[in-house]
Task: structure prediction
Amino acid sequence: MSIPTSTSVVESAVIKAPLAHVWHYIKLQDFSKFWSAVEKSEFVKGANEETDVVTWTFKDGQQVEVKQEEHSTINHYITYSVITAKPELTYTSVLSTVRCYPVTSGENEGSTFVEWTGNFSSDADAGVIQDAKFKRREALADLSKAATKK
Result:
């Protein structure tokens, strides 16, 4: 019997770099430039010209094809879905959003607040949600390191 669990995850961080420095990395094809778990990220050849599909190859050998569903340079967010994975995922689907906000006052003024959400299909179990939580935390820490380099 499986443990009932929420099928969403929200992780966030304050990155001590201006929004422009952080936003520069938030492109599906550039995740390997900051996320240490990703060996390479590259456009899928032969994909529909109107659709951005990128393969993320993780250092553990997993390959995930992600499709950009929505992107806003005005509101600073990108939404993507996983369309295929090798090995196959244990759940049907996930829709994720990375959103950046400028911090405009207080002790972190000039920094960027980054939120990374994931909404999973109802067949995702507690292990999937925990894994997503820790992967996002690791990626946000890596993003902070990349964006704050001089």
